[in-house]
């Protein structure tokens, strides 16, 4: 082989990496800027809002919280109790028992005195058959509805709830999430505060509840997770929710709403077709589709994002579960991007097509792959003895320092805006984790992403990795 | 791509550009630097935040007992407690000098206000104002940072500072959403008429959230008399219509049947469904035909609502229609709803087999020409009316953005009464005045366009709300005018807070409301008779209102008959005169009502009115037009109080003082102790308190104070007055020795009030001699101006005895 | 301590409101003990049982509901308990009554109303 040409190719590979890295730096810097502006504005705007007075207003819209439950017998009773004690009047909690194999339904019936009620069902029902609709015979639990249906997966359960609900807004949450009492008030505010655009969906921050003290369905004390993996995830979530989504929200290009806490305008969600049952990334896909639907209807709309800590959940504490989770995310990502590939740099979809989609494509999907390729080629070049050490080390150094800086900035915002971890030691610990993250946590995440992509692209089937929960009631 | 290029260019292009590794290292270093910066900031912020919150919490904890003491201070407490209370009062004044303390106090009060209700809440509002904390909030309104403005508005709203109404009202069309929304809430909160003003003048869209909050404010208002909201169903702002519909439903105002039925045909879904909701609520069964007519053009949700309504109000003849729906509709839920509607109308109905074929076609017909079914004779009459009105309205609308002197033309009498009735920002005021002719000036009625069943409702509503650009133009103009007026108002309020003037304010903490309320009662015929004579004058007034800013002054200068521009004080004087006809016209039927010579009397009259009012109207909503229109007026009045006090003493009470003085020479007053340690301001406040607690020994002390030539002039004056009030009280005490403690307390208060009235009245009675005490203050230009007033007053004294008689009668009454 | 004064335990976590009510109640002639959280309440109750308890329903460590059942069951005391509840929390109020609360007052609190209710409960005893 002509070593001259080879060298040139080699150099070009370096240039590609350099360009990609610089592009990332630029994007992240822009994101930092946008999220800063956005957070500052949000703070100023909301520093003196008293929400609690509003909850009983006759104009307050009706909301259905849909919580799909699959084999949750350990925690379901406690979780429902927490959902029923939210500060809001006009809402319904709809638990969809997705054909659990354990005693989930029985536990609910016992705890809440449920009785089966008559409910007419559309003969052309598009979801899995419904076995029964239950309501509580006690007035105290009048807000609770339980749907028992045959197993059809999370999306199908959510769709069932969406169709059976008669309320204006629906909230799709994980049943084991802990919502703070004010959560619905914030959501209603977000839906209602726009006057020029229709708010089709509202998403929120997911906070990590591992090791926090919880009693009686309420968060009593916020603590830093003890588990090292959870700590890394805390750092990751802080970056992603406090900086990332805030920035996307700022330019109205938010493309993902966490499945654990997402609220939708029921009318639009249904007209857009509800959740896709054929993907594991249903929470991302539905936002794509609703946005698309609104674009096609040519209506002014927006997706709102609430940075206040409203929803707390437990994250996986074992590598295996984490890898499964991220693997699933990667596949969902790929499926969604593929399904809507016509949006890619399509100006018909405005910013959605020109900014958000490409970002997801390049950063969320391509980056881990590129990283992987980079690693392989470095090893390969090293083996061949032609590695440009100078360049390699300089690039790694820049990327590393950048990631640290970005993490620190996220911590700074966390401190500035919510300051929830009171101990200085906690903050220092987080910083230390930021320093070692690129060597420890990041490879795990990248590996999961690669695995997910590999599985998807080479058609290896696997179910959705269920996260074994310890359950809040134990904590 | 390089492959397509000619050969000779390939090589240099193929050679990859040299990567500047140094640059990467530099970048890395930069990132480290930034990382370090963030690292430090994290700890900086943490410390700052926690230090701030810790010290604030600490201060709050210190101040909380103080607040409790103030809040629960009862008039019937023991003498020791009163002394303790006074001590605290002095202490607080001292504390208030520090901004941090003011902030802490404000926060405490804001917090408590949320947690407390009933009389305690009232007391918090009063305390907030007593401590002068609202001055800080007013200052915030002046800020250039929108979040600060908004904070100020919030504070004033929460604390129910009625005085802020006119000022805050101007923000309701502010460019910044947050400020705008806060101001809207404030406008509706602070005054019952606020909602009218808001619905009339709101230019922006009203978000759902905002509607929710506004309704919430209304819901929690006590004794709120809602206006007839149907008046706003014809508004051009779609959100105003929507909100009006919701209010109609909430307040169950079932007097707008025709309009509501018409609105079912509105193209906006929300309006449509709200209208249906109202119809259902009020059971307007006439609407069923319309409901059927619009059915096929609606979305699923509205269809369900329609079916619900038809099921509730429909009769047997509607069943056919429902059956046709059951046949034609695809949506399962709609179908089953139709069936349940049939069942609701006639539970045991068996579906008849005949007629089904016909009805199958009916829906299409309806869909094609739904509107035709609606034309009844009643409608057409209404339509004409509406059409006329709309012409009128649009004309007004066109005029609204620009204010030029020609706009002021229509009936000036009305203009004035209106502006009093309904304090608006200048431009609006004039418009409204012209809009309404000489009907009786009932705010609710006149401000609102007439309700009806407009033929063009639909068209009208479909007119787009003025687009951004247009709005912006208007806004700009509004903002300029607003800025000018606002700054003036604010300055006046802030001036008031000056320590020198505070003393004066404490003497007569009264205000002007009655002027407004009494408008209607006085003969309108008389007004008309006087109208011509006053027309010039009123022009002036209007000019005053508008021309409070320099810009407007220029515009108007041609027309100002009294254009006085020589000296500052003279201008002030002149402007006061300009203002006076207002008062006079509204207040009483007097001869020579508009003669300039009466100026001083008219002021007196205002004062008098306030006093009578004070007994019934505590603090809320005191503030009104006058404040805005002519703040100088109030100062003037206060000065009268100041100046007349010593006069009276010299005239009547000199001997009494001496008597008392000899009796109790050896006693020692607790106030003496206070006076030794506190500053002038506190001393003035203490003097206010003395009458409530005081006994003979205090009297002696106060008299000593008054005679002490080393003391400040202001203080001496006040001391003299206090002495005299105290004296009267003591005299009363002796005579009413049989009274119980509580009763006495009341009497004292009345006496206090009465005294002040008397002081004023006597000031008027006395003639040339009144000017003597003024020399003490003669260095102040404003006082000179006041003298001029007095002189005029003297001249016109004889011609106006009648007013005095009635005045004095009331005073006697007050004195018991 | 003046023995003739009725002893009142006030459990309220909002310090500001607590100090205010404390002042008002003292002024009205009660001997008031203040507890800012559930732990303090428990501690106090272990040493003595007051003549009446006024407690917020939402408190850290030990909610008003828990307090009622603690007093009624574990201490087996029938001391009058008045609950302070936030508006819109009807379910909690219901369960408070079920557990044996004697009366309740809603936030925002009117101190005068509280006095009347306290007085009434004490007069029943």
UniProtKB/TrEMBL annotation, chain A:
GO terms for molecular function: glycosyltransferase activity. It holds the Pfam family Glycos_transf_2. Keywords: Glycosyltransferase, Membrane, Transferase, Transmembrane, Transmembrane helix. Residues 64-112, 172-402 form the Glycosyltransferase 2-like domain. SUPFAM superfamilies: Nucleotide-diphospho-sugar transferases. The chain crosses the membrane at residues 12-34, 361-385, 391-415, 427-450. Signal peptide: none annotated. Belongs to the glycosyltransferase 2 family. This is Glycosyltransferase. It comes from Poritiphilus flavus. The lineage of its organism: Bacteria, Pseudomonadati, Bacteroidota, Flavobacteriia, Flavobacteriales.
Automatic annotation (TrEMBL), chain C:
Keywords: DNA-binding, Phosphoprotein, Transcription, Transcription regulation, Two-component regulatory system. It holds the Pfam family Response_reg. The keyword Transcription regulation applies. One of its GO terms (cellular component) is cytosol. This is Response regulator. SMART domains: REC. Residues 7-122 form the Response regulatory domain. InterPro entries: CheY-like_superfamily (IPR011006), Sig_transdc_resp-reg_receiver (IPR001789), WalR-like (IPR039420). The keyword Transmembrane does not apply. One of its GO terms (molecular function) is transcription cis-regulatory region binding. PANTHER family: REGULATOR OF RPOS, TWO-COMPONENT RESPONSE REGULATOR ORR33. The modification 4-aspartylphosphate is found at residue 56. PROSITE patterns: RESPONSE_REGULATORY. One of its GO terms (biological process) is regulation of DNA-templated transcription.
